[in-house]
Amino acid sequence: MQIQKIKAIAKAKGIKAGNLKKPELIHAIQLVEGNFDCYGTAILGVCEQTNCVWREDCLECSINKVH
Length: 67
Ligand code: SF4
Hints:
Number of helices: 3
Bound molecules: iron/sulfur cluster
Order of helices and strands: HHH
Structural class: mainly alpha
Strand content: under 5%
């Protein structure tokens, strides 16, 4: 997801993006939504939450952390 869209989502939820990087911003959104701040933690690209809106970016981020 494009960072501008993520910033727009954050703003709509009352989060000030400031200098937050993409993972930090998504974590803030997840917490405001009452979810775990699990973005980027799908070890080996595995997560059973198939409806997660962050899934595509998360799996890519998680896999890149491993390598
Ligand atoms: S794909 Fe899984 S680990 Fe990643 S943000 Fe979504 S729920 Fe969290």
